[in-house]
Write a structure and sequence with these properties.
Ferritin; mainly alpha
């Protein structure tokens, strides 16, 4: 493992990490968009895919400003987030809204990681006076923040509400089923009482007499 002995080398290392992360996302985002059923969510993911491709190009330009060749360094963090997202999205869900909610959560984990990574790289580029690099990275950072906010709007305004309504519908169905059982028992009790009341008086007395004597007839 090569040693890093200057802020410049540290910044270049961070650019390599971001470069790998963004390139991974150009392959991961289409998979999420394909599984999304909510139109707004799918549109947001497809739009951000185009932004991600531009972010890759900006990083290549940033490398040029640093006098470096654009090279990727395996980003273990992004790889783990993507793998975890694929695992969660691939689960079996009874309702599509639940999967959409999981897709949003997975996408926002990605955005939060990138926001942190871009913010750190920008801070270091400012210290080095790499103003062109700062502007490039800042543009990408703003896109990541906007994408995160858009996902939150879709989650809070549509997807999460629909997923929660699914639970309420199931609870209502369970309550109605329980009410049906209670009503059925009540009708059976009323029917039994009505039948008993309809018996002849003598029959009711004989039944009462048998009950009081434990069912034994007197001789």
């Amino acid at each position: 493992m090569a040693s890093i002995d200057s802020m410049t080398e540290l910044l270049v290392d961070q650019l390599k990490d971001l470069y790998d992360a963004e390139k991974r996302l150009t392959k991961a985002i289409p998979k999420l968009a394909k599984k999304a059923t909510n139109d707004q969510l799918r549109s947001a993911l497809e739009e951000h895919l185009e932004e991600t491709e531009q972010q890759v190009a900006r990083l290549e330009e940033a490398f040029e400003h640093m006098g470096e060749t654009a090279r990727a360094k395996p980003c273990a963090g992004m790889r783990g987030i993507i793998e975890e997202g694929n695992e969660h999205v691939g689960e079996d869900y009874e309702d599509d809204d639940l999967r959409d909610a999981v897709i949003i959560g997975s996408a926002q984990r990605v955005e939060h990681y990138e926001i942190a990574a871009y913010g750190t790289a920008i801070a270091h580029a400012k210290l080095l006076g790499q103003n062109e690099v700062v502007e490039l990275l800042l543009e990408s950072l703003n896109e990541e923040k906007a994408a995160d906010e858009k996902l939150t709007e879709i989650a809070e305004g549509v997807v999460n509400l629909e997923a929660a309504n699914q639970d309420e519908d199931e609870e209502s169905e369970g309550a109605m089923a329980g009410l049906g059982v209670m009503l059925g028992r009540k009708r059976a009790t009323v029917s039994q009482r009505a039948t008993a009341a309809a018996r002849p008086a003598g029959s009711r007395k004989r039944t009462a007499a048998r009950t009081s004597s434990g069912g034994r007839s007197r001789r």
